Amino acid sequence: MKLPSLSRIRTGALLALAALAGASQAQQPTKLRFALDWVFQGPQAPFLVPHQNGCYQKAGLDVTTDRGFGSGDTVVKVGAGTYDVGFADINAMVEYNAKQTRPEDRLIAFFMVYDGAALSIITRKDTAVAKPADLVGKTIAAPPGDASRRLFSALAQANGFDASAVKWINVAPELRETMLARKQADAISGAAFTGYMGARAVGVPKDDLVVLRFPQFGSTLYGSALVAKRAFAASHGAALTAVAQCVAEGIATSIRQPAAAIEALYQRDKLINREVEQERMQLSLDWSIVTPWTREHGLGGVDPARLRKSMQEVSAALDIPAPDIAEVFTAQYLPAPERRAVPR
């Protein structure tokens, strides 16, 4: 019997090793870097659930989720390629895109999370402010870059008063709620659930607070969404759909089993107050995520007519060209409707 030559044995071994290496490579999960909008608090819990329940792993993804430092920072980091996906205010994304000269540097939203924008004005009952028009002649404290402040003209226009009829007081973010509590300002602007919980934390009784949320008073503005760079989206479409699916499942879990979502948050930050963060998360669900639109159409999508109108509001408020809505949002990577339905 003729034995195979040593060279053939070596060649066969090399081919087998190459095949094994190829198979191993094919099974490697897709790595994604995900930046949130803010610190790990209740509203961020739904994005941590997929790490806890294994959704990302089952989808073949290796996702690293980091805290954010504001939507403006998140969109810059996604645009720079530091992160692949971000959770950020869509209006901040539009403003970022307006500054980019090359189309490939622009971002696009692919899953709307906050169907109701979190933008708000928060005041005390003793100011007698019950609706946006009552803010005329009042003082509002906020950092200059606060989204609710920068888009205030959209609220004013929707409610028939001159946006310049209020006086703004510049304040550091960490002092905003304190100024309201000390009555050094009539109102503050900021994310509704963050400002509301923050005001209570510095001593304002919840029954004394009035929250004027932009969606309640005629503004069509959308809120925060999952965003990615266009070039990345074009080459990683399946991964974006998987991320959107896992986020949708994370939101559904947060609605059905809020304690499980807060447990996922606790695993990332053992110093949280579970009760406080569960209430904060519930407010984000009730005020921004579960809306009449999402109950009927599911999570993630947008109403094209509303988005077009909201882009006109953003254009006027930020003094930038109104973009074509196809340049702002794509439904291309949305999961199937039945996979993103709001739990009943």
What would your notes on this structure say?
The structure is a single chain. The protein is an alpha/beta fold and 344 residues long. The chain has two domains: 29-116 and 221-339, Periplasmic binding protein-like II (D-Maltodextrin-Binding Protein, domain 2, 3-Layer(aba) Sandwich), CATH 3.40.190; 119-217, D-Maltodextrin-Binding Protein, domain 2 (3-Layer(aba) Sandwich), CATH 3.40.190. Helices cover 45% and strands 15% of the residues. The strands form two sheets. Strands 2-1-3-10-4 form a five-stranded mixed β-sheet, sandwiched between helices. The protein has a five-stranded mixed β-sheet with strand order 7-6-8-5-9. Helix 2 (45-53) packs across helix 11 (237-256), helix 11 (237-256) packs across helix 12 (258-268) and helix 12 (258-268) crosses helix 13 (274-289). It starts with 5 loop residues before the first helix and ends in a 26-residue tail after the last helix. Mean pLDDT is 93; it is low at 1-25.
Write a concise synopsis of the structure shown.
With 344 residues, the protein is α/β, with parallel strands linked by helices.
What is the number of domains?
2
- How much β-strand is present in the residues? 15-25%
Radius of gyration, rounded? 23 Å
Whole-number mean pLDDT: 93
Number of strands: 10
CATH superfamily of the largest domain: Periplasmic binding protein-like II
Adjacency order of strands in the biggest sheet: 2-1-3-10-4
Which architecture of the largest domain would the CATH scheme give at its second level?
3-Layer(aba) Sandwich
Provide the structure class: alpha/beta
* Helical content class: 40-55%
Tell me the name of the CATH class of the largest domain: Alpha Beta
Largest sheet: 5 strands, mixed
Uncertain regions: pLDDT < 50 for 5+ in a row? Answer: 1-25
N→C terminal distance: 73 Å
